[in-house]
Amino acid sequence: MTYQALTETTVINYIKNRPALAAMFPPQAQLKAQEVGDGNINLVFVIEDPAGGQSVVIKQALPFMRILGDSWPLTRARIRFETQSLLLYNELAPGLAPQVYDHDEEMSLVVMENLNRHEIMRKPLVARRRFPLFADHISTFMARTLFFTSDLYLTGQAKKELQARYINPHMCKIQEDFVFTNPFMESEENQWNPLLKAEVQAVRANAELKLAIVDLKESYMAHAQALIHSDLHTGSIMINEHDTRVIDSEFAFYGPIGFDVGAVLENLILNCLSHYAHTPDPAERSEFQHYLLDMVRTIWHEFARKFEALWLEHNQGELVPARYWTFEGGEAAFAEFRRRYLLNILRDTAGHGGCKMLRRMMGVVTVWDISSIEDGQQRAIAERAAIKIGTRWILERQQFNTVDDLIAVVQEEMKSLEDQEEHP
Amino acid sequence: MTYQALTETTVINYIKNRPALAAMFPPQAQLKAQEVGDGNINLVFVIEDPAGGQSVVIKQALPFMRILGDSWPLTRARIRFETQSLLLYNELAPGLAPQVYDHDEEMSLVVMENLNRHEIMRKPLVARRRFPLFADHISTFMARTLFFTSDLYLTGQAKKELQARYINPHMCKIQEDFVFTNPFMESEENQWNPLLKAEVQAVRANAELKLAIVDLKESYMAHAQALIHSDLHTGSIMINEHDTRVIDSEFAFYGPIGFDVGAVLENLILNCLSHYAHTPDPAERSEFQHYLLDMVRTIWHEFARKFEALWLEHNQGELVPARYWTFEGGEAAFAEFRRRYLLNILRDTAGHGGCKMLRRMMGVVTVWDISSIEDGQQRAIAERAAIKIGTRWILERQQFNTVDDLIAVVQEEMKSLEDQEEHP
To answer: What is the ipTM of this complex?
Structure first.
C-alpha cells in the first residue's frame, strides 16, 4: 500500500485487508476507530471491537510537524526507529513498554497494545496522584535499556552494528535545535512568559552558561554511550498504580545516558514547581513536593544500583575486559572505575536535565504541568524557579557528587522562593 | 570476478581484463608486477610499464592478518573504508594523499598512484633526514580532514550520514585491543624488552594510569568527533623533501581528533628517543632531537592555527550556529569556546599519544625506529624514557595548557636520562 495518511474510516479497511491484523478480531467484528493523537507529528488511532473488547493502537507518522503546519517536513522513517526500539525494549525491559503487534514500513505505521488502563503521567502528577511503583519501574527501564546497549555489555562489533541501525539524523536535529540551541538565542518560534523577559534575556547573555550548553550539545551529538530513548519526559510515560510503560521512542539513537536520566528527573522537578499554583494549600503542597523530591532521589539511587548490579553480573563488554583489572589493587580500581562512570552519568544528568528545564521555559516546547497554569503571575513563580535551578544544574554540575547535591539546589531555590512569599 | 588473492602473475591479467585500468597503459605494454607489501594484512603490487614509465599500485586486502597467520580473520571490507577515505582526502586535502584510479569491491582492492619518489617516513628520520615542509603538510592534512568532517562544519544530517558510511567495527576492534587493552594486561601476544620487566609490570599495576587508559579507550569507542584516519603514525606517511602523502586509511571512522594528532606527535617523540642508539655523537644527536621537538611544536601550533582559521572561515556547522553568539560578550565567548575546544584536543592528543607510546613498548606492535636497535641495553634507554613520557602524558594531560607542556615532559625525561649517563 502506497503511503497515505489514514482516517478513522480508512484505518478500518486497512486492518481488514492486512491478514495479521484482521486475525486479531472476529471476522464479523464491527470495528470502531477514533483518532486520539495529541502529539504534533503523528496520527494515533484506537481501534476497538465493542463486542469483544479487543483493541489496538495504530500510530502513523505524518510527513510534517503538525505544530508548525506543513512547513516542517519530517521523515516518516522515524516510525522505523520507534518500532525497532520498542521491540528492543520488550526484550531488554519486558513489561515496561507497549507490546508491538505489527509494523508497516511503507505506511509508516506501527500497531501496538492499547494502553487503555494507563494515562500519560503529567496530569495525575498535577492532581497529586502517587505511583508507588514508578521509581522502581523507571529505574529498571533505564538501567536495563542503557546498560545492555552500552560498551559495558556489548562487544564493539555488536554495539557498532546496533548504532548503525539507529543513525537518526532528522529526529536528532529536532532535539539539537529545540533543546540545545534555539531557546538560547533569538529564534522566532521561541515563547516565554512576558513577566520573565529579564530572566530569559539573562540566560541568553550568560557566556559561561552558553559555553556549558554547547559542551552538553556536543555530548548529545557525539557521545555514543548507549541507545537512549532521547525524549524520556513524563509525557512519554503511561502509567497506573501497578504498571509503567515508556512510549514514543522515535528519537532513539546512540547518545549520552545522562540525557535520558536527566529527562525523567527534570520533569519531576518541573511538576514539583508547578504545585506552587496547582496546590494552594501549603501543607498539602509541601507534602507532595517532598514526595516528588524523594522520588527523584530514589530513582537515581535505584538506577545507579541496578546499573552497577547488571555490570557486575554481565561484565563482558568491549570497553574493559574483566582481565584488565587482574593486578594487585585491581578490584579496587574496577570499583573506582564504576564509581566514576556513574558519577559522570550523574553530572551529565544534571547538565542535560538543566538544559531541558531551561528550554521548556523559553523555547517552542512548553511543559503542560506549568503551561496549564492560567494566571501569568502564578505561572511565573514556577518558571522563575525552574530557570534558576536549570542554570545551576548546568553550571554547578562538575561539583555534584551525589543526587542530594542536585536536590539541594532545588530545595534552596524553593526555600528562597518561599521566604520571598512570606517576606515579599 | 570472485575474490581471489592476486599474485605477481595474475595481477597483470587482472589489469588487462579491466578496461579502465588497461587503458592506462599502451596496448602492447609488457607490464611488470612486484609484490612489495611489508604490512601484515594486505598485498601491495607495483605494476610498471618499463617502456613507458607509467606505473600504479594495487593494494588488495587479505582475509586474515599475516602476522598471526590465518588465525585472525579480517573483513576485506576494510578496503572500502580505505578507498572512500582516500577519495575524501583527495577532496578535502588535495595533494596530501595518493590519487585513487580504481576500486573493485568484490576483489577487495584499490588502484592508486605509485608513490615511487616517496619513502615511508621512519627510516629517513632515523637517518636524520630533514623534511622542511612536513610540519606544514601534515598540519594542513589534519586540520582540513578533521575540521571538514566535524560538527563544526557539517550539518547534523551530513555528519551522521558520513558517520554511517564509516561504521568500521572490525578495524576499530584492532585498535581497541592493541592500543588500549591488551598491552596493559597479560596477553600472550605482548612482547617487550626483558630488561624492562619491572617498568612493564609497574604500568600494568598502576591503578590510576589504567583508569585513565579506560577513559581514553571510552573516548576512542564513543566520541564521534570527526572522521579520523585512526592509524596516522609515521609508517602511514610517505614523504620526500617536497611532498607528503598519507596512506593506509583503512582504520578510518568517526572518533576523537586527538587520536590522530597524538599518533603523529607520539611517533616523532619515539623517533627522537631512538637516536640515543642511532646517533652516538652527542652533539649530532642533540641537534636532531631538538629539530624533532621543534617539529612537534610547529605541527601542533600550525594544526591549531589552521583548524581555527577554517572554523572562522566556515562557521556553519550544526554544533553552534553563528547566531548563538549574538549577545553582549558573545564574540569573546565564541573565542573562549574555540580556545577550550582546541585545548581539549591538545589534552586528548597527550592522552592518546601516551597510550600509543606505551603500547609500542609492551604490546604486539613495536615501532621500527626503536625495535631496529639491536642491542637490548641500548634499546632499553629509549624504551624506558618512552614509558615514562607516555605515562606522564596520560596522567598529567588535564594539567597541560600548551604543547610546550607536552614537550617539557619529554625534555625532563631526556635530561634525567642524560644526567644518569653522565653520573651513572
So the answer is: 0.95
> pLDDT digits over B344-359, tens only?
999 999 999 999 999 9
Pairing of strands A109-113, A226-228: unpaired
Q: Give yes or no for residue A68 having a pLDDT over 70.
A: no
Query: What is the model's pLDDT at position A40?
Result: 66
Q: Does A316 touch chain B (CB under 8 A)?
A: no
Residues from chain B that touch A348, judged by Cβ atoms under 8 A, are none
Answer yes or no: do B224 and A222 touch at CB < 8 A.
yes
Tell me which chain A residues have a C-beta less than 8 angstroms from the C-beta of B164: 164, 167
Contact residues, B window 338-377, toward A, CB-based 8 Å cutoff? 340
Query: What is the rounded distance in angstroms from the CA atom of residue B78 to the CA atom of residue B63?
Result: 10
Q: Report the CATH fold assignment for A10-113.
A: Phosphorylase Kinase; domain 1 (3.30.200)
Q: Domains of chain B: which residue ranges?
A: 10-113, 119-422
Q: What is the dihedral of CA A335, A340, A342, A344, to 10 degrees?
A: -170
What is the least distance, in Å, from the CA of A372 to any CA of chain B?
30
Superfamily of domain A119-422: Aminoglycoside phosphotransferase (APH), C-terminal lobe (3.90.1200.10)
Global pTM reads 0.96
Query: Rounded to whole angstroms, what are the CA distances from A111 to A22, A107, A373?
Result: 12, 11, 35
* Cα Rg, chain B, nearest whole Å: 22
Asked if B188 is an interface residue toward chain A (Cβ–Cβ < 8 A), one would say: no
Map residue A48 onto helix, strand or coil.
strand
Contact B173 A156 (CB under 8 A): yes
Q: What is the per-residue pLDDT for B296?
A: 98
**Local confidence band at A41 (pLDDT 50, 70, 90 cut-offs):** confident
State residue A421's pLDDT score: 76
